[in-house]
Amino acid sequence: MEMITRMVLERPVVIYSKSLCCMSHTVKTLLCDFGANPAVYELDEVSRGREIEQALLRLGCSPAVPAVFIGGELVGGANEVMSLHLNGSLIPMLKRAGALWV
């Protein structure tokens, strides 16, 4: 889990994903369309991806991907990100984290 902690502090928005996961694609598209420029780690393409996936499950991410961190904090998966977007709190959260400048 130390590896995840270190990785999520490197950028305002971090997404753990799998390249063929449709929900991961949806979350990546949404955040990129806002201009957030997230760091994306495709767990099926990076070394130690399986280890990271297991750590995400231990953190409570179920399923493990997509897992979205904003400002170093776990937001959750696709359902949580979409809920934040629909209730109007996603963009302010991205701004507070320094991911959006507008």
From TrEMBL:
Top-level taxon of the source organism: Eukaryota
InterPro entries, alphabetized: GlrX-like_pln_2, Glutaredoxin, Glutaredoxin_subgr, Thioredoxin-like_sf
Keyword Ligase: no
CDD domains according to UniProt: GRX_GRXh_1_2_like
Cellular location(s): Cytoplasm
Family: Belongs to the glutaredoxin family. CC-type subfamily.
Gene source species: Brassica carinata (Ethiopian mustard)
Domain Glutaredoxin intervals: 13-75
One annotated Gene Ontology cellular component of this protein: cytoplasm
Record's keyword terms, sorted: Cytoplasm, Redox-active center
Higher taxonomy: Eukaryota, Viridiplantae, Streptophyta, Embryophyta, Tracheophyta
Name by which UniProt lists this protein: Glutaredoxin domain-containing protein
Pfam family, one: Glutaredoxin
